[in-house]
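Co-fold these.
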Amino acid sequence: MRFMMMVKHPEISGPPPKALMDAIDKITQDAINNKTLVVAGGLMPLAQSNAVKISGGKLSVIDGPFSEAKEVVGGFAIFDLKSKEEALEGAKQFMELHRQHWPGWEGTTEVRQMFGPDEFPPR
Amino acid sequence: MVVMTTDIHRAIDAVWRMESPKVIASLARIVRDVSLAEDLAQDALVAAMESWPESGIPDNPGAWLTATAKHRAMDTFRRNKLLERKHAELGRDMDARQEAAVADLENALDDDVGDDLLRLVFVACHPVLTPEARVALTLRLLGGLTTDEIARAFLVPELTIAQRIVRAKRTLAEKHVPFEVPRAADLPARMTSVLEVIYLIFNEGYSATAGDDLLRPSLCEDALRLGRILAELAPKEAEVHGLVALMEIQASRSKARVGPGGEAILLLEQDRARWDRLLISRGLAALERAQKIDNLRGAYALQAAIAACHARATTAAETDWKRVAMLYRTLVELVPSAVVELNRAVAVGMAFGPAAGMEIVETLASEPSLKNYHLLPSVRGDLLAKLGRNEEARAEFERAAALTRNTREQELLLKRAGDCARAAAGSGQ
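Predicted complex below.
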C-alpha cells in the first residue's frame, strides 16, 4: 500500500538544526535499505515557487509567495508499506525526531493513503 | 568645527550630515584617497558656510558641495603637481574609466553615488583597522558626526577620537587599501565586518541608561540610519535586512526600558503600550525581506525573529514561547555560545515547563564562560522557585546578587531571595 506523507508547518521556521537533519537522513537511509521508501524530498520556499490556477473560468500562473496559507508543505515522502498502522508508526517516529532535536517546532504530518489497484474493483 | 547657532547654520549642519557621506564617497573614487576626499569635502563646507547664508541653500546641496569640492581638487592638483603623480599612479590602474575621470575632473562621469557610498562603507570598516577605529571612522565619514560628537557619544576625550581617526586614515593609506567594493569571494567576511561596526554603534547607544549623556541614545539613531542606507545599497544581502530588523525592534522598546527612577525594566515587565509601533512594523518588514532572501539562515535575522516574537505579543503572557525556543535552537547552532543556550533554557522553561528548562540549565552548570555571569544563577533560581524548591532557589538568587554590580539588580535579586526564604519557611523546607 502506498502512502504519501506531507509535512506542514508555518513557513518561516528557519533552517532545521543539523542534529535533526542527520537523524532524518538516517531513517531515510534505513527506509531506502529496506525498500519501503519510494521517493522523498524537501520543497523550496514559496517565494521561489509558482502556482497555476483556474478561477472564474480563467487559467493563470502565479508567482510565489501565494495565498495567505499559514502553513506550507515543507517536504514529502512516499512509502510502500503493509498497513496504515505501519505508516502511522513511521510518521510518529519522524515527528518524534523533531520534538527531540528541535524543541518548539510545531507542524503536522499528513498521512494519506494513495489510491492503488486494490481500491478499484475489477471491471 | 564652529558651533552652529543661527538658523541657516543649523540648516547647513543638517545638510552636511545627510550629504557629506555622498560628497566624500564621490571624491574618494576620483582622488583615490579617503583622507584627501574628506579634506576636500570640508573645504566645500567652508565655502558653503561663506556663500549660502547670502544666496540661500541650493536646490541640490549635495551636487553643489560635490562640484565645489571637485574644483578644489583641480586647484590642489595643479598647485601640488599631484595630477602628474596621480596620472602616473593611475596609469598603472587597468580601469580606463578611472583614468578618464581624473584626466577630466570637470566632466567627471556622474557615477552612481550609491556605488561610491558602498565603497566608502567597506573602506571605513576595513579589517586592517581596529574595531574602535572602524567605529570612529564610520561615524565620521558616513554618519557625518563631528569629532566632538563622537567623543561625547563614547565618553572619551575628543583628542582620543581625533588621534584614532588620523591613525585610521594613515593606516588605510599605508596599506594602500583600494577604494572599491570587495570581490564576491571576500564579500561575506567584509560585510560581516561592516554589520559588526553598525551593531557596535547601536549597542553603545542602546545600553546607555537615562543617567548618561543624552547624546548616547542618538547613537541608536545613527546606527539605524546607517543600517537603512546599507539596506538600500545592498538590498540582496539578507543579513543587512536582518540587522536592520533587529535594531528597529530593539529600538522600539527604548521608552519602556527605563523606569521613573532611571532603573532598567526587564523585557517581560515592560509596559508594552510604550513600545514604538512604527519601529516595530518597520522591523517586521525588514525581517520579512531577510526571510524571503535566505530563510532565517543568518544570526542577525534569527535574533530579529526572536525579537519579533516578543514584539508581536501584546502582553508577555501571549508570547509564542515555543517559537522562541525553536528559533533559539537554530541560533545556538549558528552561534554556539553558552549565553544563547541559557536564553534557550529560559524559553524552553516558558514553553514546556520549568523542569524542561532546568534540564538545559544543568548542562551549563560548569560552563567556564558563565562562571561569573549573574544571569546563570538567576535563571536557575527562577526555575527552582517555579518547581517549588524554594530553599535552593533562595541560595541561587543570593549567589546571583553577589555576582552583579548593578545595585538595582541586586535589590531585585535579594528581594526574590527573600520571597523564596519566606515560601520555604512557610512550607517547612
